[in-house]
Amino acid sequence: MEIIALLITFVGLSWQVDYVSELGVYGILKTDPLPLLSLSVSDLPVDKKQTFKSYELPALKSPPSVGVQNETGLIYAILAFDPDYSSENKIKDSIYVTWLMTNVENGFQQIGRECIPYMNPNPPLNTGVHRIIYAVFKQQEKVNCKPIFPAFTGSNKERAGRSIDELKSMYNLTGPLMANAYEIDTNAEELPHRLYDEF
């Protein structure tokens, strides 16, 4: 699997505000309230309830900047997923994985291993509101991707129907330690009206 650089910024712990609880993140992660994961999308911090419309999804094309507290010697994994994906054969509590980065070490431009390549969230139109949850887990040791590249192609079939417990067991993860989330509203609507459209 291709190794890519991930910008990790050092941030102090701050407790998540109510919007994360309102989104039901703790219930999905099966955890008590967590410190807020510093998350920036297109250089804009996600520090309040943020809902993207379908026409705004190009802003999510690139992986976000993720902030992890500075603790020397620890190794982290970053998991991003959609618990609200649509499927005829969806299993209860299953998720659609949009990103899994392992072997993340503290520092600037540290090297991590992208075991499930980042896919910009793009749920089908008119499937309701989707939550995209980001969570950081502690790794016990550096790991190889499973299955070994190129067996994993990153297809929708391989991303859907996963479970958090499955991934934690597969990669020997503990936590989560931090979390954050935003929403995507897939309900079809017209693009916002702009003055220059009249000319």
Automatic annotation (TrEMBL):
Residues 1-16 form the signal peptide. The keyword Signal applies. Keywords: Signal. InterPro entries: PEBP, PEBP-like_sf, PEBP_euk. Pfam families: PBP (PF01161). It comes from the Eukaryota. SUPFAM superfamilies: PEBP-like. This is Phosphatidylethanolamine-binding protein 1.
